[in-house]
Amino acid sequence: MRLIDADEFKRKLAAISNELSKSATKANALIDLIDLIDIQPTEYDVDKVVEQLKDRENYLLKEFVFAEKAEEVKEKTLDRINEIDGIIEIVKAGGVNE
Q1: Distance CA 66, CA 33 (A)
Q2: pLDDT tens track, the chain, 98 positions
């Protein structure tokens, strides 16, 4: 499965539908297809993923604060926190292929 820009796909279908308006059956079939796209579940909710990553980041921050003086543990925890910030930026970008 892959993610697509459903809004852009629907715009293109609508343009085709306008061209086919002479044939009501074909135009109606495309309109039905546009409606079908709208009712499909979203496979990727950026806000939900970011929320989960921030929850993990908060957990790691607490782990860092309450860690004993073991510098190695603190360094690893900080590295993981910084990785999460980078991952959030990737997720927000949405992986768009141009």
Answers
A1: 55
A2: 567 778 888 888 787 777 776 677 777 777 888 888 877 776 677 788 889 889 988 888 887 777 766 777 778 878 888 888 888 888 887 655 44
- DSSP three-state, residue 80: helix
- Kindly report the pTM of this predicted structure: 0.46
Count of alpha carbons within 13 angstroms of residue 40, beta-carbon side: 16
Give CA angle at 12 (93, 3), nearest 5°. 35
CB 3 within 8 A of CB 95: yes
Residue 30: CB atoms within 10 A of its CB come to 19
Find where tokens 């697509």 sit: 4
